[in-house]
Every structure is written in structure tokens, then in C-alpha cells.
Write a structure and sequence with these properties.
36% of the residues lie in helices and 14% in strands. By secondary structure, the chain is of the alpha/beta class. The protein binds D-galactaro-1,5-lactone (15L).
């Protein structure tokens, strides 16, 4: 599998977020030109190399997203709401935002999107069950639902317009690069493996529309993504198990939805009564 960059100009959305901060520097080496984007305020605070172009953008603003994608060959799309919460902000940033992104990609000639989807697309499955990318989705809330929409629009734009997407159902990546609790012994994605995975998703050829779980080589993993990883040339090197003695005791009460289902804590958030 080649690691040669396929893309000249890569856009990183959500660049000021936790994953964006991990990925910005390694992505510089994966393309000729990297543009960093996020909401204006966090982007202004971002400590990035002066050579990296920064463009603030609201994903819900169609005209701004259209301008953002001018000349962009590939997008690593991390932008949007990253946690479970009320529907309206998720609707704007994740659903409308994704529609804006794919429409802009179609009109501007962008060829590939690496989409930060989420394990919460299938968070409704029981923990311990082996879950694969082609299992029926079981979103665990508004956030998981928005990621499912993202995968849907990615599939549509691959079929109709030839825009390739690798949808990465990312597990648990944290700022301190450690699994925070027992659940994350299954779902953890180390920073080094995140970088490997995104590089692979950018450099694999002819991916069409592909869904892969984004986790490390965890002994307790309940996702089986081997086929998709093979297609990408992703080979995780880290394993959450070495943290087990420190975090095994950190868990929700046995039998609670948060302990039962793969979505973990998100199963305990909401409903939000927004339409009342
Ligand atoms: C995600 O998709 C979220 O963005 C992040 O906040 C974590 O909660 C993670 O999933 C997880 O499931 O651990």
C-alpha cells in the first residue's frame, strides 16, 4: 500500500478541536498544502505554524463552506458537534453542515473526504457483541443519528458524483492519549494510530465509499473492522490493555444502559424535550 500523498491541497476542519490538534502537524507531511478551519474564536487561539493557512468557517453557512473548498482536493472533516446533546445545534453543524460540505465538494471538484464518523452510529448494540461496519446502524442519540446522516450523504455522493469518502467510526481518543475508563479498553484509539488511520484513509486508492471503525489494536475490541482496515492499509500498533490496571474499575453501574450498550455514557444523556 502506497503512502505517497494522492492529494495536493488538504483541508482540515475542526482543526482547533482535540483530534484536529493531533492531526494538523502530521497532515502537513501528507500533502503539499494544508488549510486549517474551525469556528473563528478557537481557530484564532490555535497555535499553528504560520505556513498553515487558517480559514474560519461556520459549517451551517453554505456560502462560506463553498468558498472554503475552493481548490481543495481532499478534506479531513472533523468539524461539528462532537458530543451528544440537543438536536438543534447538531442539526446545524452536523446535518446541514455535512450537506453544505458535500454540495461544496461536488461544485468545487473535491475528490475525497475523510469523515470523522463515530462509534455512536452503532452505540445501541450491547457491549461485548462483535459489531462490523456492515451491520445495521443502531444510533444511540442525536449525535449518532447525525453521523449516520453523514455516512448516508457520503454514500450518495460517491454513487452519484464520484466523491470518495472514508467514514471513520472513531472510538475513544482523548487529549491525554489514555483510555479514560473500562469501556475505552475496547474503544480506545491512540494518537499514533489516529494519525496512521487518517494517513491511510487519505492515501489508499479507489476507496469509493468505505466505513471503518477507528480504534487501536485493543485486546477487548468489540468492533471487527479488519476487512476495511486491509483495504486502507491501516495496521494499528497500540493496545489499550496496558492501561487496564489503572482504569478497569472506572465503570458505570452494572446493568445500567451506559454499562450495557456500546454507546456507553451517551446512553445516559437526554432526552431533551426540545419540541415541547
Ligand atoms: C465520540 O464520537 C465523541 O466525539 C467523543 O466525545 C467520545 O465520547 C467518543 O465518541 C466515545 O464514544 O468514547
Amino acid at each position: 500500500m502506497t503512502q505517497q500523498p494522492l492529494f495536493r491541497h488538504v483541508l482540515l476542519t475542526g482543526a482547533a478541536g482535540m483530534l484536529g490538534r493531533v492531526l494538523a502537524a502530521p497532515l502537513v507531511a501528507a500533502c503539499e498544502r494544508l488549510t486549517l478551519s474551525d469556528l473563528a474564536e478557537p481557530l484564532a487561539r490555535l497555535d499553528a505554524a504560520p505556513s498553515q493557512r487558517r480559514v474560519p468557517c461556520e459549517l451551517a453557512d453554505a456560502a462560506a463552506v463553498h468558498a472554503l473548498l475552493e481548490g481543495v482536493d481532499a478534506v479531513v472533516h472533523l468539524g461539528g458537534v462532537a458530543v451528544e446533546g440537543p438536536f438543534e445545534p447538531i442539526l446545524q453543524a452536523n446535518i446541514r453542515g455535512l450537506h453544505n460540505l458535500y454540495e461544496a465538494a461536488r461544485r468545487q471538484g473535491t475528490r475525497r473526504i475523510v469523515f470523522a464518523s463515530s462509534n455512536h452510529v452503532t452505540g445501541g448494540y450491547e457491549q461485548g457483541r462483535t459489531t462490523r461496519p456492515d451491520d445495521p446502524p443502531r444510533p444511540d442519540g442525536n449525535y449518532g443519528l447525525s453521523k449516520l446522516f453523514g455516512e448516508g450523504i457520503a454514500s450518495l455522493y460517491a454513487d452519484r458524483h464520484g466523491i470518495e469518502t472514508v467514514a471513520l467510526r472513531i472510538g475513544t481518543a482523548t487529549a491525554d492519549d489514555r483510555p479514560p475508563d473500562r469501556r475505552a479498553l475496547a474503544t480506545w484509539l491512540s494518537h499514533a494510530d489516529l494519525i496512521r488511520l487518517v494517513r491511510a484513509a487519505l492515501s489508499a486508492r479507489d476507496v469509493g465509499f468505505l466505513v471503518a471503525y477507528g480504534i487501536s489494536d485493543n485486546t477487548r475490541a468489540w468492533y471487527d473492522s479488519r476487512e476495511a482496515w486491509l483495504r486502507l492499509g491501516y495496521s494499528p500498533q497500540d493496545n489499550a490493555e496496558r492501561f487496564a490496571p489503572e482504569v478497569e474499575h472506572i465503570a458505570f453501574p452494572a446493568g445500567s444502559p451506559m454499562a450495557r450498550f456500546q454507546g456507553g455514557s451517551f446512553m445516559g444523556i437526554g432526552p431533551f424535550d426540545e419540541t415541547l
